[in-house]
């Protein structure tokens, strides 16, 4: 329940907001020692989704848009005439999202999924999913709801084999698509959710080579490009910075290589509006990490919205720097198209463009078919879940955390993007074609990259992962099917 | 042989030396399969005719030295690859370690933010209740009895200490970023640390206190 709160600190005593019922998710009343998040997150959300804390973040950390924007220098200084049109802070609610409490975790005995459907049941569930997709495609939303509620009965929780778990997450994604509940772009992430996400990423990196492969392969491609020139100034434009984990190892390398003069690194990260809290956390941590390594570091943030309007003009480039652009399918989805982006990229003429595809993106942007993208996404994430099962055969809780906080949001984003983009798309080329048409050519990856990937896979000690080269890309595969594909390009 | 200038050195001596040399080489050549057979063949050929076929010997030596070079090259290559792979492994370990360290510190900072948020909230919550209690009492026209506030004072000082502690620990205190809460905390600190028995907050927000013996 939202409580109007003014972020304006000028109103003095009146600023103490009136709460209705401050029973917080953290179980706080008067004690200064809050329940820590060491408890199992999935079960401790006993207070459920209804207890919103609209204003605690609000008043405490001034997480209103204005101050965050000012802090991150995303306000009017940079783009005087094109200040993003945010609603006034009073309408913002910092909402604690309901932690994913799946019924079967609270009371496993009660909720099993229908075991009658175990055997051949997988396929009619998929058929139903596709029917929903088709209905959404042809705007038969009522019919879609009907089929979806049928599916809800059969898929009550993400349990069972990978296919069924994937089906559950994709069903959930379709559900929120239909109910429009993910339209709430103005929601800032709560600290609890952030902590859970970071933990999930940590766990995931620990058991599966997927994340590290993406980061380290890209980093090595970047380092190889940087070493080709004597200029120590590097500027990386990153479209999917996440929590900044990739830069830890990159900075370590830069520090080692330039031990005499101290290293330089400048990063410009294009971030979505709703990640304001994460963004501040990332900035704090990267700055600290760089300082510890004695690297001269600077990080700027550009809002996705601003980038959509201004493209690369929103980003500051400095003469004499080696420019690296790091991209993933996320930006192409947001922009719904590749050609415009690559043409603008050409004008920037970066020294290297590193493309990391860890979403099984089949690379056909806006090709129109929601169904096709849905199905290929479904296949992809089923495979990811399979690999997760192999990586953590007995780690049920770990898998739930990873699935809940790493994979499920990705699935939801992918489904939403596929649904949105289908309306605008139509017969575009594959990303390779678009890159080549814009005049880019591939840069071969060094042998170091190959060795590193192989080493990494070996270290992971999970049978089924292997590294392959495919048309100049280095690909991490799961039983022959690509999971992550990295390539480097230049103009 | 003249250049070597060793007395009594004959072709025979040379050939036997070369043979021993080649035998030694053959052990090294074990790793390169293809040249092994050839060198065996060369060996057997050589032991046969030691005096007549000097030309053939020269050709064979040339052949063999070529194989030796090839073998050496292959060895060097193998060593280089080994060395590079060791380097890759070392770098990889460093990178994994850096990544882990970073994620750990991000996690810690985020957890701390939750704690700070909770403490700050607790502090504000307590303060709000105090103030509203006082407001009621003041509006009732009664004197504010000091002893009734004593019960809450310990918890206030507890909180104040906790908050002070947090402020000192964290490099960037979230509390200071919010002027309202910070101001409130300051008021509280002054009140509690100077005179633990009375509620100075009321005094500083301008409420009328019956006795102003507060520091």
Automatic annotation (TrEMBL), chain A:
Keywords: Transcription, Transcription regulation. Pfam families: GRAS. It comes from the Eukaryota. Residues 416-490 are annotated as: SAW. Residues 25-59 are annotated as: Disordered. Residues 281-313 are annotated as: Leucine repeat II (LRII). Belongs to the GRAS family. This is Scarecrow-like protein 15. The lineage of its organism: Eukaryota, Viridiplantae, Streptophyta, Embryophyta, Tracheophyta.
TrEMBL record, chain B:
Pfam families: Myb_CC_LHEQLE. Residues 67-113 form the MYB-CC type transcription factor LHEQLE-containing domain. Residues 38-58 are annotated as: Disordered. InterPro entries: Myb_CC_LHEQLE, PHR1-like. This is MYB-CC type transcription factor LHEQLE-containing domain-containing protein. It comes from Brassica rapa subsp. trilocularis.
């Amino acid at each position: 329940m939202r409580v109007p709160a003014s972020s304006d600190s000028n109103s003095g005593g009146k600023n103490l907001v009136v709460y209705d019922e401050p029973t917080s998710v953290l179980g706080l009343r008067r004690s200064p020692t809050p329940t820590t998040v060491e408890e199992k997150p999935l079960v401790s959300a006993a207070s459920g989704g209804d207890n919103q804390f609209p204003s605690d973040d609000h008043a405490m950390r001034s997480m209103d848009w204005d101050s965050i924007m000012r802090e991150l220098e995303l306000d009017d200084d940079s783009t005087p005439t094109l200040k993003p049109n945010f609603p006034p802070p009073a309408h913002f609610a910092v909402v604690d999202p309901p932690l994913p409490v799946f019924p079967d975790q609270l009371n496993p005995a009660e909720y099993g999924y229908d075991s009658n459907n175990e055997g051949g049941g997988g396929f009619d569930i998929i058929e139903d999913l596709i029917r929903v997709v088709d209905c959404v495609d042809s705007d038969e939303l009522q019919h879609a709801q009907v089929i979806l509620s049928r599916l809800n009965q059969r898929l009550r929780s993400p349990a069972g084999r990978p296919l069924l778990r994937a089906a559950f997450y994709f069903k959930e994604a379709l559900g929120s698509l239909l109910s429009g509940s993910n339209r709430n772009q103005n929601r800032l992430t709560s600290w609890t959710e952030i902590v859970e996400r970071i933990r999930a990423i940590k766990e995931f990196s620990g058991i599966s080579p997927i994340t590290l492969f993406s980061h380290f392969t890209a980093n090595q491609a970047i380092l190889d490009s940087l070493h080709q020139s004597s200029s120590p100034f590097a500027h990386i434009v990153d479209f999917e910075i996440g929590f900044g984990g990739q830069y830890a190892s990159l900075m370590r390398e830069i520090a080692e290589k330039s031990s005499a003069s101290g290293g330089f690194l400048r990063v410009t990260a294009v971030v979505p509006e709703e990640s304001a809290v994460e963004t501040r956390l990332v900035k704090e941590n990267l700055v600290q990490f760089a300082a510890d390594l004695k690297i001269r570091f600077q990080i700027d943030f550009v809002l996705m919205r601003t980038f959509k309007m201004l493209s690369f003009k929103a980003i500051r480039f400095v003469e004499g720097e080696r420019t690296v652009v790091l991209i993933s399918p996320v930006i192409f989805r947001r922009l719904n198209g590749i050609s415009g982006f690559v043409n603008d990229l050409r004008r920037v003429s970066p020294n290297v463009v590193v493309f990391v595809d860890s979403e099984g993106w089949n690379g056909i942007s806006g090709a129109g078919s929601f169904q096709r993208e849905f199905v290929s996404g479904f296949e992809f994430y089923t495979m990811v879940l399979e690999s997760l099962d192999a990586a953590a055969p007995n780690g049920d809780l770990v898998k739930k955390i990873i699935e809940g906080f790493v994979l499920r949001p990705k699935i939801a984003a992918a489904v939403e993007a596929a649904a949105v983009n289908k309306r605008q798309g139509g017969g575009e080329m594959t990303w390779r074609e678009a890159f080549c048409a814009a005049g880019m050519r591939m840069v071969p990856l060094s042998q170091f990259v190959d060795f590193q990937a192989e080493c990494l896979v070996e270290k992971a000690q999970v049978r089924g992962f292997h590294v392959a080269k495919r048309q100049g890309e280095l690909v991490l595969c799961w039983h022959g099917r690509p999971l992550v594909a990295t390539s480097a390009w230049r103009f | 042989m003249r250049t070597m200038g060793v007395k009594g050195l004959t072709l025979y001596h040379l050939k036997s030396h070369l043979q021993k040399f080649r035998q030694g080489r053959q052990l090294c050549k074990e790793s390169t399969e293809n040249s092994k057979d050839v060198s065996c063949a060369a060996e057997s050929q050589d032991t046969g005719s030691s005096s007549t076929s000097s030309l053939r010997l020269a050709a064979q030596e040339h052949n063999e030295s070529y194989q030796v070079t090839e073998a050496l090259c292959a060895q060097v290559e193998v060593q280089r690859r080994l060395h590079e792979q060791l380097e890759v492994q070392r770098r990889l370990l460093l990178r994994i370690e850096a990544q882990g360290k970073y994620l750990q510190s991000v996690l810690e900072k985020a957890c701390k933010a939750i704690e700070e948020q909770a403490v700050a909230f607790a502090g504000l919550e307590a303060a709000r209740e105090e103030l509203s209690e006082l407001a009621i009492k003041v509006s009732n026209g009664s004197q504010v009895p000091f002893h009734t506030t004593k019960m809450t004072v310990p918890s206030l000082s507890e909180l104040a200490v906790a908050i002070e502690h947090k402020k000192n620990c964290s490099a960037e205190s979230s509390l200071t970023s919010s002027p309202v809460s910070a101001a409130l905390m300051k008021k509280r600190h002054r009140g509690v640390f100077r005179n633990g028995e009375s509620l100075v907050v009321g005094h500083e927000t301008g409420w009328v206190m019956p006795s102003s013996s507060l520091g």
